[in-house]
Design a protein that fits this description.
This protein is of the alpha/beta class and about 210 residues long. The protein starts with a helix and ends with a strand. Helix 3 crosses helix 4. The radius of gyration is 18 Å and the shape is globular. The protein has one domain: Rossmann fold (3-Layer(aba) Sandwich). It has a seven-stranded mixed β-sheet, with helices on both faces. It has a two-stranded antiparallel ribbon with strand order 3-4.
Length: about 210
């Protein structure tokens, strides 16, 4: 009887931890792990729908903002990061996944998430207790990166060549602390002309998993 009670208590503790800190329980698939370990300044995770690309993107964002990346040496917090999505609905979907994976005690008290709507704010910002921030932008509503110094940019799903040009010019030439920033892309190549990105992969500018 005592053994059953002990086992039950341990299960409850594990369940509580998995709810409060899901990131610590994330175990990447081989393609996700390859991409997460990639040290390239521009890295692309390419695949079909429902293969875990967005989960890899959210894990990478959180690892960098929290400064606890299991595979790479990253800038120490606080950092500024951008999450770029193609549409508003896509933004809500990835925000939900980001919140679900985030260690809840790492979020700043002012950071509020509303199910079905995402993080509060006209331009949503995810704030962490360590000072890091994720600014969430929708590509078709304008990026507004003119004065930003960004350590990391996550792009989920294809963006136009014009948006890519604005992002790469700002991040790769003016990253945090005077260093070049990093761009991580996760996408299924449909719904947008990404021939420019294919060319960059062929030229070795973008590392593709």
């Amino acid at each position: 009887m005592k053994a059953i009670q002990t086992a039950t208590k341990k299960l409850r503790t594990l369940r509580s931890r998995s709810v409060s800190d899901p990131l610590s329980y994330f175990r990447p698939t081989p393609p996700q792990e390859t991409w997460l370990k990639d040290t390239s300044k521009i890295k692309l995770l390419l695949g079909g729908n429902q293969v875990g690309k967005t989960y890899a993107a959210t894990a990478e964002l959180l690892y960098r903002c929290l400064g606890n990346h299991p595979y790479l040496k990253v800038d120490p917090p606080p950092i500024q990061a951008f999450l770029i999505t193609h549409s508003h609905q896509q933004s809500i979907t990835i925000q939900e996944k980001l919140f679900a994976m985030c260690p809840k005690d790492a979020l700043h008290p002012s950071c509020e998430f509303v199910p079905g709507k995402g993080f509060r704010g006209m331009h949503p910002v995810v704030r962490f207790n360590n000072g890091s921030m994720i600014m969430i932008k929708t590509a078709n509503q304008g990026l507004g990166l003119a004065s930003a110094t960004v350590s990391y940019v996550a792009i989920d799903e294809p963006v136009s060549q014009e948006v890519w040009g604005e992002l790469s010019a700002r991040v790769l030439r003016g990253g945090a602390g005077g260093k070049t920033g990093t761009i991580g892309i996760t996408m299924t190549p449909v719904g947008q002309d990404v021939s420019y990105l294919q060319k960059l992969v062929e030229e070795g500018v973008v590392s593709c998993t």
